[in-house]
Amino acid sequence: MEEHYKNVKCLIWKKIDAKNNLAEKRSCGIPTCSICNGKIEPIKNIPQKIYSFLNDDNFLKQLICGSPLELQSIDIQFWKIIHPYFKYQDWVEIINKDEEKLNQDEKNYKSLIKKVFKTLNGIIAYESWFVANKPTSNYSAYHLATYLDIRSCVYCNRTFIVSQFKTESSGKIGKLIRPQFDHWFPQEKYPLLALSFYNLIPSCSICNTSVKGRKELNLARYTHPYEDNILDSVIFSYKHLVSVDSLKIELTGINNNSELENRINNTLKDFYIEEMYNSHHPELKDLLTIKKTYSENYLKNLKSAFPDANLTDNEIYRLIFGVELNPNDFHRRPFSKFKYDILKELKII
Fold first, then answer.
1. 122, burial (CB in 10 Å: exposed 0-12, middle 13-18, buried 19+)
2. What is the rounded CA–CA span in Å between residue 289 and residue 285?
3. C-alpha torsion angle, residues 186, 189, 190, 195 (rounded to 10)
């Protein structure tokens, strides 16, 4: 998080320290910082209320590193300063209203909020800086994904989200693959939070784009991937539907805290996690075949068959099933939690 904070802070300083705002431009003091020493164009004519807000170093720290609850509070605080009666839904209605049907107050309101959104998108430069930057730049989406070292989607644990650049024939380093970053608080509604650490969730394209999209979540109803490790409270199981001779994978959130349990199940339901896993019957059938074919001491027998290999239980498990045995490492390989629960139910582990 510290690396993210340092780079985003330098970016915002660079963006707001235009000559008409600050005579002497700030610097992080690191001679090699390509942001402070680079050619990032500052935003001119920033409204004073926005400038004062972003020019407060204590606020800036909280904006970049604050918890999800703190980010929610920051955004409310910001808009109270910009426009005490601002409501996003009112703004949407005015945008979609024919220009000739707007009264003068609505026109003034539309102009003000439009300018604020444009200014924030210019300063908190998610698309034009964070996403656009190459892997060889000082900092980019590739860098954050690498620092996080989360190798499977935090929402579904079904898909690898590794980062890798490519070397072109010319020798240049270019973009290849990386996770998408879901804005837990949607960027189009919360432009102020577009580069906040706890609002950048590494995820697969299905969860981020196809399932969540622009849907707005709230902390009272849903879990947050960085705050709530729901894999600890999710139980996979299966049953055989005799009437149609088919398998059904089932998924339930269970926790001693009823409030958290409700949020877990809401998240599972609205992200269609159980439906997603029911497209993976072949993986379930493989585990059932192992149970049917081999004894309950399958893993022990394999370990004893190769005593000179000195393999740990974790290594044997990973080699056979392609997933992690340690719950702390489930995020490193897709299907780790699913296979762990099914194998326990089958008494293979």
1. middle
2. 6
3. 50
Give residues with Cβ within 8 angstroms of 58, minimum separation 6. Answer: none
Q: In the block, which residue shows the tokens 């992080």?
A: 28
Residue pair 172/32 in contact by the 8 Å Cβ criterion: no
Which neighbouring-strand residues pair with 166? 174
CB 157 within 8 A of CB 338: yes
pLDDT, tens digit, 9 for 90 and up, residues 292-338: 877 666 667 777 777 777 777 788 888 888 888 888 899 999 999 99
Q: Which residue has the tokens 């149609």?
A: 244
Alpha helices, H only, the chain:
2-16, 48-54, 57-65, 68-82, 88-95, 104-123, 141-148, 205, 258-270, 273-277, 281-293, 298-305, 313-321, 336-345
Q: 347: left (phi > 0), else alpha (psi -120 to 50), else beta?
A: left
Phi, psi dihedral angles at 240 (to 5 degrees): -100, 120
Dist CA 328 CA 229 (whole Å): 10
Give the residues of the chain that fall short of pLDDT 70.
18-25, 243-244, 295-299
Is the separation of the CB atoms in 336 and 330 below 8 Å? yes
**pLDDT tens digit sequence for 18-32:** 644 454 567 777 777
Q: How many helices (H) and strands (E) does the chain have?
A: 14, 6
Q: Which residues lie closer than 8 Å to 96 by C-beta, 6 or more apart?
A: none
